[in-house]
Amino acid sequence: MSLLHYITWNVDPEIFSLGPLTIRWYGLFFALAFVFGQIIMSKMYVAEGRTEGDVDVLTLYMIIGTVIGARLGHTLFYAPDYYLSNPIEILKIWEGGLASHGATIGILLALWLFSRKQKFDYMWVLDRIVVVVALGGAFIRLGNLMNSEIFGHPTDLPWGFIFLRSTEFSQVPRHPTQLYESLAAFLLFVLLYGLWLKKKSELPRGLLFGIFVTVLFSFRFLVEFLKENQEAFEDTMALNMGQLLSIPLILVGIAILIKVIINPKPALPGGRLPDSPAKSK
């Protein structure tokens, strides 16, 4: 098939530069993930008797947990020898290197701290945060597309992308796995948000979180078979690092769903713990 049948991708990852300041598509999509996430989460919290102030605090915890977790995840999972030998490089986030599994761990820890500090039920918080995390994942993968990174194996499918800005793989059409993951995350967002809109008062505790973890990381596990490895050491592995890190999260999600099916428990109204008084509006 002629290369004219494929999609040529040559987008500049930089939107514009103003002196030392450079605005990149990835950074824009990363910021939009939090902006839209806060808007949606505010509507959800207010609808369930909480305040927008709760969401402001939650967003701060989320930003810190996401950035630190994603950066440490990349340094420890994908290049520990280099970063442990050059620890100052860990701080250079602007040079790239964020891992979604690390972000997941960072978010879980940050929200646990948030729940303890603000007297929320931890699972109630998780059930609602995964709605906007799914949307955020869709934005982040679009950022990866703009960076011409994390793409797939060669393909002869008509929607294969030729990533001209890739110095190593610029001439061969490849699976646009960034788009596959972005679409999957967006559809997961639609499913979770739809369930919350229709049945928020009836959803058993842990259902949304269980669905999110199981579906998202099962898809991540499968799509890795279509993707180029991110680091050379993965070439000798039967399963790459992304797949190995996905397996325990899939098992956690399945265990939670089984628990929900066997012994469903109603969510605490407004996520308030028994000894947590209602906040005045």
Choose one word for the global shape: globular
Q: From the helix content, strand content and strand pairing, which structural class follows?
A: mainly alpha
Q: Beta-sheet strand percentage?
A: 5-15%
Q: On the 0-100 scale, what is the average pLDDT?
A: 89
Computed over alpha carbons, the radius of gyration is 20 Å
| Number of E-type strands | 4
- Strand line-up of the largest beta sheet: 1-4
Please provide the ordered H/E string of secondary-structure elements.
Answer: EEEHHHHHEHHH
Structure overview:
The protein is mainly alpha-helical and 281 residues long. It has one domain. 57% of the residues lie in helices and 5% in strands. The chain is built from 8 helices and 4 strands. The protein has helices spanning 25-47, 52-77, 80-85, 100-118, 122-146, 177-199, 207-223, 241-262; strands at 7-9, 14-18, 21-24, 161-163. The protein has a two-stranded parallel sheet with strand order 1-4. It has a two-stranded antiparallel sheet with strand order 2-3. Strand 2 and strand 3 form a beta hairpin. Helix 5 runs parallel beside helix 7 and helix 6 packs antiparallel against helix 7 (207-223). It is globular. It starts with 6 loop residues before the first strand and ends in a 19-residue tail after the last helix. GO terms for molecular function: phosphatidylglycerol-prolipoprotein diacylglyceryl transferase activity. A 1,2-diacyl-sn-glycero-3-phospho-(1'-sn-glycerol) binds at residue 141. It is found in: Cell membrane. Its EC number is 2.5.1.145. Belongs to the Lgt family.
